Amino acid sequence: MTEGAGIRAGDLPDDLTAAEAGMWQAFRNGSVYDLSAGDPVVDDPHGGHPWGPERTVRARIVCWLLLDGPPPLTGRVSALKLRGVRVSGPLDLAGGTVAPYLEMRGCRFDREVLLPEARFTTLRLVNCSVPRLEAARVHTEGDLHLPRCRFHNGVRLTDAHIGTDLLINQAIVYRDRTGRSIAADGMTVGQDLQAELLESHGELSLRSATVGVSLSLRGARLANPYGRLALNAPQLTVERTLYLTPAGLDSPLLSGTTPARGTRIQRFECQGGIRLDDGRFGDAVDLQRARFAFTDEQELSLRRVQVPELRFLGERPQRGKVVLSGARVVTLVDRANAWPGPGNLHMGGFSYENLVPQGPFPLVERLAWVAAATAEYNPEPYERLASVLRAGGEDEDAREVLLAKQRRRRESLPLAAKLWGYAQDGAVAYGYRPGRAAVWMAVLWAAGSLAFAHASRPPAPKGEDPAWNPALYALDLLLPVIDLGQVGLWQPRGGWQWLSAALILLGWVLATTVAAGATRLLRRS
């Protein structure tokens, strides 16, 4: 019987093998067609045990059923549900519309699966061995499930449209000829993208992808020793949360929630750079307990990311950089030992409104955090930190941050300005500790009064004989603006004249530094 003849009546084609005939009848009945041997070693689709013709079907017959198959039996819904089946030849459904439900579990494909521009309701490949999945611009109304599959030459989902969920939990994906493990640039997922416990060997590319709910890479292991990036996802949009966190290993079902205490876990690990530049995340980016292994040239790049909450709670990268330049975060949840050291943190233009440290994070370490991000003096990180602390009611810490900013700025000034800066710092701490001015004034006044009290009375102008008051005279010298009428009445000689000049100069220094501090206080208010 030629292909197509008698199909509408449900007749079996003449050239089908026994395995294919059984598949044909199971398709019409909508039942599972299971060719498993019952031995886990033999049935392992990723193992080396050969599968003979008794469990082999041709890809051409599979395509025939899916694209133009026979009608279902009365009262049944046709569906292709295969288990333990070997598919020979390339499965080519490119551009086709597949109406029947398709599910293949524990199957082995000899050649690539070609689905570009194909349309499905729901497609499930579970624990299958696939040389390559080529599915650019594929469209599903429901789910695309690829859990526990192994793809030996990569997966291509560029510009794919997944109606509900994309599941690739526990899949193992090796790179293709371009160095990518999964190429999913421009992909749209209606709900969740779950890639928990994924193993990616190559670049996982999600450039300009959109995820309608959450993207979970819990427990995933991404490694790309062949290139600079292990996760390349600029302009990624996730309506809720991106999880780069641990996954539980004890439960057979991945719940998509943070594992309970005491559960065996696998951390998210990344050997290679991560690029999330210009990403938009509706709820959070969660890096709790994430582990990064970078080279000196690689980085965790979060440039211009916008997210309500950044949970920076991973392990400190020993090498490489963390870049937050231009990122906008409402709440930064972090830990002191999660940040890299000096020279490896960049925060130019990084904006955040609230700080929620997990564990001890004293101000001295927070200042070191800012200093680590500014190899050269930059006032912005200090002013941002001070603003956040002041908004949280920590005015004293905010003043300490601004004082640290002035001291850092001083190191970049020429010698004369630097010396003047030291004078302001020592006198009133750049105006952030104005009480020092009163102490210095009192000390100088006492010292001057004591000195003039032991001096001979200086000569007064001719025709005048005022009373000599050493304390009042010393105070008049120290106050540069207020005239107490004492300095003009006396004419000190020799060393006393030098002492008078010194008190006048010190009075001006104190007044100038107090005025500078007051100006800063008024500007901040």
Automatic annotation (TrEMBL):
Annotated keywords: Membrane, Transmembrane, Transmembrane helix
Transmembrane portions of the chain: 496-522
Source species, domain of life: Bacteria
Protein name listed in UniProt: Oxidoreductase
Organism name: Streptomyces griseoviridis
Organism ancestry: Bacteria, Bacillati, Actinomycetota, Actinomycetes, Kitasatosporales
